[in-house]
Design brief:
D-Maltodextrin-Binding Protein, domain 2; alpha/beta; about 325 residues; 5-stranded mixed β-sheet
Length: about 325
Protein backbone atom coordinates (compact mmCIF):
# COMPACT_ATOMS: atom_id res chain seq x y z
CA UNK A 1 0.00 0.00 0.00
CA UNK A 2 1.40 3.42 -0.88
CA UNK A 3 2.11 6.01 1.78
CA UNK A 4 -0.23 8.38 -0.02
CA UNK A 5 -3.16 5.96 0.19
CA UNK A 6 -2.42 5.18 3.81
CA UNK A 7 -2.28 8.86 4.63
CA UNK A 8 -5.67 9.40 2.99
CA UNK A 9 -7.20 6.62 5.05
CA UNK A 10 -5.78 8.11 8.24
CA UNK A 11 -7.17 11.54 7.40
CA UNK A 12 -10.64 10.19 6.64
CA UNK A 13 -10.70 8.13 9.84
CA UNK A 14 -9.52 11.09 11.91
CA UNK A 15 -12.37 13.25 10.59
CA UNK A 16 -14.90 10.49 11.26
CA UNK A 17 -13.52 9.78 14.71
CA UNK A 18 -13.67 13.45 15.64
CA UNK A 19 -17.25 13.75 14.40
CA UNK A 20 -18.43 10.56 16.07
CA UNK A 21 -16.82 11.30 19.42
CA UNK A 22 -18.43 14.73 19.77
CA UNK A 23 -20.49 14.92 22.97
CA UNK A 24 -24.02 16.29 23.39
CA UNK A 25 -25.03 18.66 26.19
CA UNK A 26 -26.72 15.77 27.99
CA UNK A 27 -23.77 13.40 27.84
CA UNK A 28 -20.77 12.77 30.03
CA UNK A 29 -17.41 14.18 28.92
CA UNK A 30 -16.15 12.61 25.73
CA UNK A 31 -13.17 10.27 26.21
CA UNK A 32 -9.90 11.92 25.23
CA UNK A 33 -8.30 11.37 21.87
CA UNK A 34 -6.12 8.32 21.44
CA UNK A 35 -2.53 8.74 22.63
CA UNK A 36 0.20 8.54 20.04
CA UNK A 37 1.79 5.66 21.93
CA UNK A 38 0.45 3.21 24.49
CA UNK A 39 2.58 0.95 26.65
CA UNK A 40 1.60 -2.61 25.75
CA UNK A 41 0.98 -5.30 28.31
CA UNK A 42 1.22 -8.99 27.55
CA UNK A 43 -1.35 -10.14 30.10
CA UNK A 44 -4.80 -8.58 30.66
CA UNK A 45 -5.84 -8.05 34.26
CA UNK A 46 -7.27 -11.24 35.74
CA UNK A 47 -10.84 -10.91 37.01
CA UNK A 48 -12.50 -13.13 39.63
CA UNK A 49 -14.24 -16.17 38.23
CA UNK A 50 -18.02 -16.30 38.30
CA UNK A 51 -20.31 -19.10 37.24
CA UNK A 52 -24.01 -19.34 36.52
CA UNK A 53 -26.23 -21.92 34.85
CA UNK A 54 -27.07 -19.81 31.81
CA UNK A 55 -25.87 -16.19 31.59
CA UNK A 56 -28.45 -15.21 28.96
CA UNK A 57 -31.41 -16.26 31.15
CA UNK A 58 -33.21 -13.16 32.45
CA UNK A 59 -36.37 -12.34 34.42
CA UNK A 60 -39.64 -13.29 32.74
CA UNK A 61 -41.84 -10.35 31.70
CA UNK A 62 -44.72 -9.78 34.07
CA UNK A 63 -48.12 -10.67 32.55
CA UNK A 64 -49.74 -7.76 30.69
CA UNK A 65 -46.73 -5.60 31.56
CA UNK A 66 -47.31 -3.18 28.68
CA UNK A 67 -51.06 -2.76 29.07
CA UNK A 68 -52.09 0.52 30.66
CA UNK A 69 -49.93 3.01 32.62
CA UNK A 70 -46.70 2.05 34.37
CA UNK A 71 -47.09 0.43 37.78
CA UNK A 72 -47.43 2.86 40.70
CA UNK A 73 -44.29 2.98 42.83
CA UNK A 74 -42.19 1.26 40.16
CA UNK A 75 -38.89 2.49 38.78
CA UNK A 76 -40.71 3.14 35.51
CA UNK A 77 -42.99 5.58 37.34
CA UNK A 78 -39.93 7.36 38.75
CA UNK A 79 -38.58 7.74 35.21
CA UNK A 80 -41.93 8.97 33.92
CA UNK A 81 -42.22 11.58 36.67
CA UNK A 82 -38.69 12.78 35.90
CA UNK A 83 -39.77 13.36 32.30
CA UNK A 84 -36.97 11.53 30.51
CA UNK A 85 -35.11 8.22 30.35
CA UNK A 86 -31.36 8.49 30.99
CA UNK A 87 -29.33 6.03 28.90
CA UNK A 88 -25.64 5.18 28.80
CA UNK A 89 -24.55 4.67 25.20
CA UNK A 90 -21.60 4.84 22.83
CA UNK A 91 -21.04 7.74 20.45
CA UNK A 92 -18.34 6.09 18.33
CA UNK A 93 -19.55 2.55 17.59
CA UNK A 94 -20.65 2.78 13.99
CA UNK A 95 -23.94 0.97 13.26
CA UNK A 96 -24.82 0.57 16.94
CA UNK A 97 -24.26 3.88 18.72
CA UNK A 98 -22.59 6.78 16.95
CA UNK A 99 -23.01 10.47 16.30
CA UNK A 100 -24.05 11.24 12.75
CA UNK A 101 -21.45 13.83 11.58
CA UNK A 102 -24.01 15.56 9.36
CA UNK A 103 -26.95 15.87 11.78
CA UNK A 104 -25.15 15.71 15.12
CA UNK A 105 -27.71 13.15 16.33
CA UNK A 106 -26.91 9.81 17.95
CA UNK A 107 -27.98 6.91 15.77
CA UNK A 108 -27.70 3.14 15.56
CA UNK A 109 -29.20 -0.17 16.62
CA UNK A 110 -28.60 0.45 20.34
CA UNK A 111 -29.95 3.98 20.13
CA UNK A 112 -33.18 2.67 18.61
CA UNK A 113 -33.40 0.11 21.44
CA UNK A 114 -33.35 2.95 23.98
CA UNK A 115 -35.89 4.98 22.02
CA UNK A 116 -38.26 1.99 22.00
CA UNK A 117 -38.15 1.92 25.81
CA UNK A 118 -38.77 5.68 26.02
CA UNK A 119 -41.70 5.38 23.63
CA UNK A 120 -43.31 2.75 25.86
CA UNK A 121 -42.91 4.83 29.02
CA UNK A 122 -43.79 8.24 27.61
CA UNK A 123 -45.43 7.63 24.26
CA UNK A 124 -42.52 9.61 22.81
CA UNK A 125 -39.24 7.99 21.65
CA UNK A 126 -37.38 11.28 21.96
CA UNK A 127 -37.74 11.66 25.72
CA UNK A 128 -34.21 10.39 26.31
CA UNK A 129 -31.06 11.97 27.70
CA UNK A 130 -28.00 10.16 26.36
CA UNK A 131 -24.81 9.93 28.40
CA UNK A 132 -21.76 8.81 26.44
CA UNK A 133 -19.79 6.18 28.39
CA UNK A 134 -16.71 4.09 27.76
CA UNK A 135 -16.83 0.32 28.17
CA UNK A 136 -15.26 0.59 31.63
CA UNK A 137 -17.77 3.26 32.72
CA UNK A 138 -20.92 1.28 31.90
CA UNK A 139 -21.36 -0.70 35.12
CA UNK A 140 -20.27 2.13 37.47
CA UNK A 141 -22.71 4.48 35.71
CA UNK A 142 -25.57 2.07 36.39
CA UNK A 143 -24.63 1.40 40.00
CA UNK A 144 -24.19 5.08 40.82
CA UNK A 145 -27.60 5.93 39.39
CA UNK A 146 -26.09 8.18 36.73
CA UNK A 147 -28.03 6.27 34.07
CA UNK A 148 -31.21 4.15 34.09
CA UNK A 149 -30.15 1.75 31.37
CA UNK A 150 -27.07 0.94 29.29
CA UNK A 151 -27.32 0.07 25.61
CA UNK A 152 -23.75 -0.25 24.39
CA UNK A 153 -22.90 -3.59 22.71
CA UNK A 154 -22.64 -5.03 26.23
CA UNK A 155 -21.95 -8.74 26.58
CA UNK A 156 -23.98 -10.72 29.09
CA UNK A 157 -21.81 -12.96 31.26
CA UNK A 158 -21.84 -14.55 34.70
CA UNK A 159 -19.41 -12.09 36.27
CA UNK A 160 -21.42 -9.08 35.18
CA UNK A 161 -24.59 -10.64 36.60
CA UNK A 162 -22.95 -10.31 40.03
CA UNK A 163 -22.70 -6.55 39.44
CA UNK A 164 -25.83 -5.59 37.47
CA UNK A 165 -28.91 -7.17 35.91
CA UNK A 166 -29.52 -7.80 32.22
CA UNK A 167 -32.51 -7.99 29.95
CA UNK A 168 -32.90 -10.98 27.68
CA UNK A 169 -30.44 -11.21 24.80
CA UNK A 170 -31.24 -8.84 21.94
CA UNK A 171 -28.24 -9.39 19.65
CA UNK A 172 -25.58 -12.07 19.13
CA UNK A 173 -22.04 -11.08 18.11
CA UNK A 174 -18.62 -12.74 18.21
CA UNK A 175 -15.04 -11.60 18.76
CA UNK A 176 -12.72 -11.38 15.75
CA UNK A 177 -9.60 -9.46 14.72
CA UNK A 178 -8.97 -6.67 12.23
CA UNK A 179 -5.65 -6.42 10.36
CA UNK A 180 -4.22 -4.52 7.41
CA UNK A 181 -5.46 -5.67 4.03
CA UNK A 182 -1.99 -6.93 3.05
CA UNK A 183 -1.60 -9.05 6.21
CA UNK A 184 -1.05 -12.80 5.81
CA UNK A 185 -2.82 -13.52 9.11
CA UNK A 186 -5.94 -15.65 8.87
CA UNK A 187 -6.93 -15.34 12.52
CA UNK A 188 -5.73 -14.51 16.02
CA UNK A 189 -3.55 -17.64 16.05
CA UNK A 190 -1.25 -15.97 13.51
CA UNK A 191 -0.69 -12.83 15.60
CA UNK A 192 1.58 -14.12 18.35
CA UNK A 193 4.18 -11.49 19.22
CA UNK A 194 2.14 -8.77 17.49
CA UNK A 195 0.56 -5.73 19.13
CA UNK A 196 -3.22 -6.01 19.32
CA UNK A 197 -5.31 -3.01 20.40
CA UNK A 198 -8.27 -3.73 22.69
CA UNK A 199 -10.63 -1.70 24.87
CA UNK A 200 -10.30 -1.80 28.66
CA UNK A 201 -13.38 -2.96 30.53
CA UNK A 202 -14.49 -5.20 27.65
CA UNK A 203 -14.92 -8.95 27.47
CA UNK A 204 -12.61 -8.72 24.44
CA UNK A 205 -9.82 -7.64 26.80
CA UNK A 206 -10.57 -10.47 29.23
CA UNK A 207 -10.63 -13.01 26.39
CA UNK A 208 -7.05 -12.16 25.42
CA UNK A 209 -5.94 -14.02 28.55
CA UNK A 210 -6.48 -17.13 26.42
CA UNK A 211 -3.86 -15.85 23.94
CA UNK A 212 -0.85 -14.95 26.15
CA UNK A 213 1.57 -14.62 23.23
CA UNK A 214 -0.42 -11.74 21.73
CA UNK A 215 0.76 -8.34 23.00
CA UNK A 216 -2.31 -6.50 24.25
CA UNK A 217 -2.39 -2.72 23.78
CA UNK A 218 -5.22 -1.53 26.06
CA UNK A 219 -7.02 1.78 25.50
CA UNK A 220 -9.93 3.51 27.20
CA UNK A 221 -12.08 3.74 24.06
CA UNK A 222 -12.34 1.21 21.26
CA UNK A 223 -12.31 4.10 18.76
CA UNK A 224 -8.76 4.89 19.92
CA UNK A 225 -7.74 1.55 18.43
CA UNK A 226 -8.55 2.76 14.94
CA UNK A 227 -6.15 5.68 15.35
CA UNK A 228 -3.34 3.54 16.79
CA UNK A 229 -3.86 0.95 14.08
CA UNK A 230 -3.55 3.55 11.33
CA UNK A 231 -0.53 5.15 13.00
CA UNK A 232 1.19 1.77 13.04
CA UNK A 233 1.29 1.65 16.85
CA UNK A 234 -0.85 -1.51 16.75
CA UNK A 235 -0.66 -4.35 14.24
CA UNK A 236 -4.26 -5.38 14.75
CA UNK A 237 -7.47 -4.64 16.63
CA UNK A 238 -9.74 -7.10 18.39
CA UNK A 239 -13.38 -6.53 19.19
CA UNK A 240 -16.85 -7.79 18.45
CA UNK A 241 -17.53 -8.33 14.75
CA UNK A 242 -20.29 -5.70 15.00
CA UNK A 243 -17.75 -3.07 16.09
CA UNK A 244 -15.11 -4.13 13.57
CA UNK A 245 -17.69 -3.84 10.78
CA UNK A 246 -17.90 -0.14 11.61
CA UNK A 247 -14.10 0.15 11.45
CA UNK A 248 -14.11 -1.29 7.94
CA UNK A 249 -16.25 1.66 6.89
CA UNK A 250 -13.52 4.00 8.16
CA UNK A 251 -10.55 2.24 6.59
CA UNK A 252 -10.76 0.54 3.18
CA UNK A 253 -7.21 -0.80 3.71
CA UNK A 254 -8.25 -3.05 6.59
CA UNK A 255 -9.94 -6.44 6.74
CA UNK A 256 -11.47 -8.73 9.36
CA UNK A 257 -10.02 -12.25 9.43
CA UNK A 258 -10.67 -15.62 10.96
CA UNK A 259 -13.72 -17.22 12.48
CA UNK A 260 -15.13 -15.72 15.65
CA UNK A 261 -13.41 -17.18 18.70
CA UNK A 262 -16.02 -16.17 21.29
CA UNK A 263 -19.77 -15.70 21.51
CA UNK A 264 -20.86 -12.25 22.64
CA UNK A 265 -24.59 -12.09 23.54
CA UNK A 266 -25.74 -8.50 24.05
CA UNK A 267 -28.19 -7.42 26.75
CA UNK A 268 -29.41 -4.08 28.03
CA UNK A 269 -27.89 -3.37 31.44
CA UNK A 270 -30.02 -2.25 34.41
CA UNK A 271 -29.01 -1.74 38.06
CA UNK A 272 -29.88 -4.52 40.52
CA UNK A 273 -32.34 -2.50 42.65
CA UNK A 274 -34.77 -2.38 39.70
CA UNK A 275 -35.76 -5.92 38.62
CA UNK A 276 -39.24 -4.67 37.69
CA UNK A 277 -37.60 -2.47 35.06
CA UNK A 278 -35.81 -5.50 33.63
CA UNK A 279 -39.16 -7.31 33.37
CA UNK A 280 -40.73 -4.25 31.76
CA UNK A 281 -37.99 -3.95 29.13
CA UNK A 282 -38.12 -7.70 28.52
CA UNK A 283 -41.79 -7.32 27.64
CA UNK A 284 -40.83 -4.62 25.11
CA UNK A 285 -38.12 -6.84 23.60
CA UNK A 286 -40.56 -9.76 23.39
CA UNK A 287 -42.94 -7.65 21.34
CA UNK A 288 -40.13 -6.32 19.13
CA UNK A 289 -39.12 -9.88 18.24
CA UNK A 290 -42.61 -10.79 17.09
CA UNK A 291 -44.03 -7.64 15.50
CA UNK A 292 -41.20 -7.09 13.00
CA UNK A 293 -39.56 -4.15 14.82
CA UNK A 294 -36.32 -6.03 15.51
CA UNK A 295 -36.09 -7.19 11.88
CA UNK A 296 -36.66 -3.66 10.60
CA UNK A 297 -33.92 -2.29 12.87
CA UNK A 298 -31.56 -4.98 11.60
CA UNK A 299 -32.30 -4.01 7.99
CA UNK A 300 -31.82 -0.32 8.76
CA UNK A 301 -28.49 -0.52 10.55
CA UNK A 302 -26.82 -3.76 9.47
CA UNK A 303 -27.92 -3.58 5.80
CA UNK A 304 -27.73 -7.35 5.24
CA UNK A 305 -26.95 -8.73 1.80
CA UNK A 306 -28.91 -11.89 2.64
CA UNK A 307 -32.09 -12.61 4.56
CA UNK A 308 -32.47 -10.99 7.97
CA UNK A 309 -31.73 -13.59 10.65
CA UNK A 310 -34.18 -14.41 13.40
CA UNK A 311 -33.57 -12.43 16.59
CA UNK A 312 -31.95 -14.31 19.47
CA UNK A 313 -34.67 -16.16 21.41
CA UNK A 314 -35.46 -14.94 24.89
CA UNK A 315 -34.47 -17.19 27.77
CA UNK A 316 -36.07 -16.75 31.18
CA UNK A 317 -36.01 -18.54 34.51
CA UNK A 318 -33.78 -16.24 36.57
CA UNK A 319 -35.36 -15.03 39.80
CA UNK A 320 -35.27 -11.32 40.69
Amino acid sequence: MSGRRRGTAIAVAAVLAGSLAACSSTSTPTPSAAPSAVAPTTTPTTKPAATCTNPTASFAPAPNELQGPVAPGSFMEQIRKRGRLIAGVSADTLLFGYRNPFTGQLEGFDIDMVRAVAKEIFGDPNKVSFKVVTYAQRIPALNSGAVDIVADVMTINCLRWTQIDFTSEYFRAGQKVLVRSDSKATGIQDLNGKKMCVAKGSTNFDNLMNFPKVIAVPVDDISDCMVLFQQGAADSVTGDDTVLAGFLVQDPYAKVVGPEFTKEPYGLGIAKPHPEFVQYVNAILERMRTDGTWAQMYRTWLRPTAAVPAPPPALYGRRP
